[in-house]
Write a structure and sequence with these properties.
Blueprint (H helix, E strand, L loop, with lengths): L1 E4 L6 E4 L8 H14 L1 E4 L6 H9 L13 E2 L2 E9 L23 E8 L7 E5 H7 L2 H6 L4 E4 L19 H6 L5 E4 L1 E3 L6 E3 L6 E4 L4 H14 L6 E4 L6 E5 L3 E5 L8 E8 L11
Parallel strand pairs: 2-3
Antiparallel strand pairs: 1-2, 3-14, 4-5, 5-16, 6-14, 6-16, 7-13, 7-15, 8-9, 8-12, 10-11
GO molecular function, one term: metal ion binding
Family: Belongs to the TfdA dioxygenase family.
Pfam families: TauD
C-alpha cells in the first residue's frame, strides 16, 4: 500500500490496495491515514452498493437513510447524489454534513459512478488548520460560545419537493427537527485536536449575540475558511472513492458542468455529539 500526502494540511491518495477485501492490517493503515490526513482518496475501486456499505461499516455504525436524498433501489442507506439532463445542480455551499443533527456524522464514503466530460471536482478544507490560523484574540473570544445549526440549508434546493398542496418537503420534515446548538470550537474525539466548527450551509447564527454582530462574526470566520492553503481539490474518475472525517473538515462541490450526467453514491457513518474544546 502506498500513501501519498497531497498537501501540508489535508488530503492523501492511497494506492495498491483493494477496498473490497483489504486485510485488518491494511485497514488499520487506512484508518490511521484517515485520522492524519482527514480525507483520503482511492482510484479504480468500483464497489457495489453492498461492498460500499461493508466498507463504511468498518469505520463505525451506519447512519439512517438521509431524509432528503434519493437512494439506490434496495439500499436505503446508499444515498444518490446525481445530476441528469435538465436537472443541473443548484448553488453549492461550503458545508460539513448534517450538522443540524445533535450528533452529526463521523465520516462519509463517496463513490463515483459516472461523471461529466469535464469539471465536477470536490474541494475539502481542514477546519483544524483554519482554527490554528485564527488570531489569538479571536480564539479567546470564541471560548465557551455556541452557534445554532439548522436544516434550512436544503430549503428551495433540488432535493426540496413540493406536494400537491404546495407544501415543501423540507419544511414539513424540518418542522419536526429542533435547532441544534454546537460549540464554535470543538475537540476531535480521537486526536484531541481543536477545530473551528462552523459551515455556511447549516450554521444559522451565533447564540447570545445580536443579529448584526453575529452575522459579522460568522462572516469573518467564514473568510478564514476560504484560504486555499488549507484545501485539497480532487478530480473524480469513475471508480474513485473519497472518505473524509466530517468532524474536522468542510467540503464544496464545484458545479461547473451544467447538466451533464454525474452520479455518486454516499454512505454515512454515525458520529458523536460535538464537545467544546476547553483549552483555547
Amino acid at each position: 500500500m502506498k500513501i501519498t500526502p497531497l498537501s501540508q494540511h489535508i488530503g492523501a491518495s492511497i494506492d495498491d490496495v483493494s477496498l473490497a477485501n483489504c486485510s485488518e492490517n491494511e485497514f488499520a493503515q487506512i484508518y490511521q491515514a484517515f485520522l492524519t490526513h482527514k480525507v483520503i482518496f482511492f482510484r479504480k475501486q468500483h464497489l457495489s452498493p453492498q461492498q460500499q456499505l461493508e466498507l463504511a461499516a468498518r469505520f463505525g455504525e451506519l447512519e439512517a437513510p438521509h431524509p432528503f436524498f434519493p437512494h439506490v433501489e434496495g439500499f436505503p442507506q446508499v444515498s444518490v447524489i446525481e445530476t441528469t439532463r435538465g436537472n443541473p445542480p443548484g448553488k453549492s455551499y461550503w458545508h460539513t454534513d448534517m450538522t443540524w443533527q445533535k450528533a452529526p456524522p463521523k465520516c462519509s464514503v463517496l463513490c463515483a459512478q459516472h461523471l461529466p466530460s469535464a469539471g465536477g471536482d470536490t474541494i475539502w478544507l481542514s477546519m483544524e488548520a483554519v482554527y490554528r490560523a485564527l488570531p489569538d484574540a479571536l480564539k479567546q473570544s470564541l471560548r465557551g460560545r455556541t452557534a445554532i445549526h439548522a436544516v434550512h440549508g436544503f430549503a428551495g434546493s433540488r432535493f426540496d419537493e413540493v406536494d400537491a398542496q404546495g407544501e415543501s418537503k423540507v419544511s414539513n420534515i424540518s418542522s419536526g427537527i429542533k435547532d441544534i446548538h454546537h460549540p464554535l470550537v470543538t475537540v476531535h474525539p480521537e486526536t484531541g485536536k481543536p477545530t473551528l466548527y462552523i459551515n455556511e450551509q447549516f450554521c444559522q447564527r451565533v447564540d447570545d449575540e445580536d443579529l448584526e454582530k453575529g452575522e459579522e462574526l460568522l462572516s469573518s470566520l467564514f473568510s478564514y475558511s476560504h484560504v486555499e492553503e488549507f484545501q485539497v481539490r480532487f478530480r473524480w474518475q469513475t471508480g474513485s472513492i473519497a472518505i473524509w472525517d466530517n468532524r474536522c473538515t468542510q467540503h464544496f462541490a464545484v458545479t461547473d458542468y451544467g447538466d451533464e450526467p454525474r452520479r455518486l453514491h454516499r454512505v454515512v457513518v454515525k458520529g458523536d455529539e460535538p464537545q467544546a474544546y476547553s483549552t483555547l
